[in-house]
Predict the 3D structure of the following.
Amino acid sequence: MKLWKQILGIVLSAVVVFSFTSCSSNGKMGKLQPTPAALSVPKQTKREQKQGDIFVSPNGDDAHNGTKENPVRTPQKAIELAQSLEKEDKVIYFASGEYNISAITFTQKDNGLTLFGEEGTVFNGGVTLNTADFTDYKDNIKMLDLKKYNITKEDIGEVRAFGQYNTAEKYGADGSLYCELFCDNQRMTLSRYPNTDEKNLRTGKITDNGDAKEIYTNKGTQQNPEWENLKNPRGGTFAAEKEVTSRMASWKNSDDIWIFGYFQYDWADSTTPLKSFDDSSITTEYASVYGFKEDAPYYFFNIFEELDAENEWYIDKEDLILYFIPPSDFESKPIQLSLETADLITFDNVSDITIDGITILGTRANAFFGTGSHISIKNCTIKNVGKNAVELEGEKITVENNIITATGKAGVVLTGGDRKTLTSAENTVINNLIYDWSQVYKTYQAAVALHGVGGVCSHNEIYNSPHEAVTYTGNNHIIEYNIIHDVVLKSSDAAAIYAGRSWSAYGNVIRYNCIYNLGSGEFTPCGIYFDDGLSGQTAYGNLLVNIPWCGFLIGGGRDISVTNNVIVNAGKPIVYDDRAIAGIVDNGWFTHSKTAESTLWKTLREVDVHAQPWVDAFPQLSRLSSDFDNTDNPAFAPNPADSIVEQNIIVGQKKYLGDIQKRVYQYSRVSDNPLYTFSENIFAGDGDYTLTVDTNNFEKLPYEKMGRVYQY
């Protein structure tokens, strides 16, 4: 029995159905190929209670001493008791149940502390609502008096700007999100029009671009010289259909209606309050970073009159009434409001702290945030948070075997190490299930982001996101053995694994990942993307299936190694352009290498590439040339030189490698990439991508090692 046939195939999400049309080598995928089966994940047993633990129970009493027979009631009291212990290894054990908490900060007084939770242990920074308290309002709308829960207008908060490219910091309105509603651990929708992204409105003719970062003229795009110091950037005006503006006339809370849109690029989401409208046009209160373009998608939200679809909600902040259109069987499902505005658990320069087996939810900020070393977050469920699940800086941080879902921003963001000396942080993100993240901020919010030096992202399963899955900056990161699927669903100029714009970010390795089923509808992203001159990257042993644009997109960088990958059904299997040098000698569109003060040249000066640690690790960097009078020199930094693209097996409708620019062939080695068509049947079976053909020097991919390796 072949490899993939042996796999149990626990798949936690439905496969996205795509509608890509068949075509040849013009950059579109062919017919969707079989989905690789997901790996089965064996279970392990959890830790049990031990004598010497401080015991906590929802039925305890903080007047108790924290023994098994006399548990305390709150995490805060247990932490206080642990601080009074003289032993180094201090353990707090939580009985199953929900603990309503406000923000907790761990300091050096808590070093050596471990928090264990029984199955069902929940830290909730919000409030769980009783479905019996909902009454009928009208039609299928339910209502709940929040005053019963002592919730105030201040608890609810104001609607604030979100989106990766909002301009709130320029008008003093950046801050925590408004509270959010969750039903059955799904993020509910603040009442909006239209109801779904598939029916989003489209901007008409742009009559005023507002005070944007970019200025668009007949001569092209220019940077706004006033942008850096600009305050209160004036919004823009665009045409709207009469049907839309007539509907808007019925909305009564016009002073608190907001607009979300991809106003210029599908990788730049933004929000702004509505300022005004008339019969034929709409004006926003503030600008989008990149201004506006015609036919850009957008929608309105926070509108009581548009409460008309299942899972939509709205809060009347004056009367403190929650209005909600719940699913039909909502009485049996947990319903929660996130209330805490601070990070739920903060580490303040700590060492040797472990959080194990606890569900964390209910904050409008981050679940975990802070600094320290030897921090371990494992076997937890982190969900229903407004920002990131984990954002930590330090060394030897481990995020292991967690379930992370329903975050407003990213999954895990780890920073550490020393680029000056290339000292590794040894931070690790391993064996996690991460899905349905980036639900509020729609772009550049990765499931895993590694920054600094020496991070590892290994054996995770990652799926269902509008944008990227894994990203990184810095050096010597390893991204390996992950299964990544159904991501970058709402963007094209993006990828499942993405990094870019650095000539000094050498030493990163992407290996043995399974990436499949990207994009949706009109959105056509890449598999692995080395953007805007990124150099010094290595990728081998990856399986990429059903990639609508480029399997690999290499954006003009040098010292790139792409070998021994299997690429099945990609629009363009491998694209390697010369944008960095073309921007100089051909007056091309790429501006980030044109002068010695351009972005890419600055990235070389971020570190001393002539210092001994760098010479030892990456001697080629010390030999780079900055001589603009000798641009033909292979060592001239912008040239796509010293790269290797070979022994990649490519299968498609036709034998087609992709688009490789002439300068790449001139300065690098592109050869021996076997090309096959679907009709040649080189794989063992549907969903089994084991090769049945003899390919010289091709390393068999370790499919059986990809994905998570255990779970609790």
User: Anything to note?
Assistant: The helical segments are 75-83, 153-156, 242-248, 579-585, 599-605, 612-617, 619-622, 662-667. The chain has three domains: 1-42+379-712, 47-126+338-354, 131-335. The first strand starts at residue 54 and ends at 56. Residues 1-25 have pLDDT under 50 and may be disordered.
